[in-house]
């Protein structure tokens, strides 16, 4: 009787080992990070190299669970070709780096060749027929022009063709974030407007400046939206 009990016990133990081993997770399936190889993470039940860009090394981004090199990535201008600057970690070609890169009577301002004696900026920006230049607005922490902004700028481009002299594009931000960051963001917004207008064929002088959060008046989500703009002076 005792021998029979021992046999049943052994049989049950063998079945348990078989059952557990048969249900073991097979790579790359996982339940926790420890189920994965070194340097991998358990994300949605699968071992992956990354889940977000922060999981990857500098100069890489996370694409479908794997770290890939960002095309054209740069940490600073020393990694870019000649006549390129590093902007938002991407090499961008510019007209000039110093005054000597420009032609006679020109100087290098904001990496673009402009006349040395720049005309005085206009006070009230009004074109022939009473047309005016309308501001455009941006999403939070963005310098991208949406469809509404591009529609407004197409109208502004027509008005600019009737204006002589230099028009200043001011980039503005809401008060959130550091002053240094908002100054840089305001400049990116103004540059985005100038770039779009030039692509439309605007030939008149356009100069960009950043006001950052200096003239912000908003105090909540609705009023901050009006602070995130680029306007003409």
Structure description:
The chain is built from four helices and twelve strands, in the order αβββββββββαβαβαβ. With 233 residues, the protein is α+β, with helices and mostly antiparallel strands. Strand 7 and strand 8 form a beta hairpin. The N terminus is likely disordered.
The CATH topology of the largest domain: 60s Ribosomal Protein L30, Chain: A
Q: Level of helix content? A: 25-40%
State the name of the first-level CATH class of the largest domain.
Alpha Beta
CA gyration radius, whole angstroms: 30 Å
Please tally the helical runs, counting DSSP H or I stretches of 4 or more residues.
Answer: 4
How is the secondary structure organized here?
Elements: H1 2-22, E1 41-43, E2 46-48, E3 60-63, E4 66-69, E5 84-87, E6 90-93, E7 106-109, E8 112-115, E9 136-137, H2 147-160, E10 166-172, H3 179-199, E11 205-212, H4 221-227, E12 229-232
Parallel strand pairs: 10-11
Antiparallel strand pairs: 1-2, 3-4, 5-6, 7-8, 9-12, 10-12
């Amino acid at each position: 009787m005792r021998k029979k009990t021992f046999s049943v016990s052994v049989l049950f133990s063998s079945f348990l080992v078989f059952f557990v081993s048969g249900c073991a997770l097979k790579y790359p399936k996982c339940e926790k990070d420890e189920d994965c190889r070194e340097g991998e993470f358990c994300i949605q039940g699968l071992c992956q190299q990354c889940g977000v860009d922060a999981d990857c090394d500098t100069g890489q981004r996370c694409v479908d669970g794997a770290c890939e090199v960002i095309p054209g990535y740069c940490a600073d201008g020393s990694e870019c070709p000649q006549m390129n600057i590093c902007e938002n970690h991407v090499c961008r070609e510019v007209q000039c780096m110093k005054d000597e890169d420009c032609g006679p009577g020109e100087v290098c301002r904001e990496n673009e060749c402009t006349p040395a004696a720049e005309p005085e900026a206009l006070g009230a920006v009004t074109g022939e027929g009473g047309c005016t230049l309308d501001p455009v607005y941006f999403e939070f922490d963005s310098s991208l022009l949406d469809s509404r902004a591009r529609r407004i700028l197409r109208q502004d481009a027509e008005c600019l063709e009737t204006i002589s002299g230099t028009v200043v594009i001011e980039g503005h931000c809401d008060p959130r974030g550091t002053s240094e960051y908002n100054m840089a963001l305001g400049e990116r917004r103004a540059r985005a407007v100038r770039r779009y207008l030039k692509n439309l064929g605007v030939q008149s002088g356009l100069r960009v400046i950043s006001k950052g959060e200096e003239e912000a008046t908003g105090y909540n989500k609705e009023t901050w939206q009006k602070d995130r703009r680029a306007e003409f002076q």
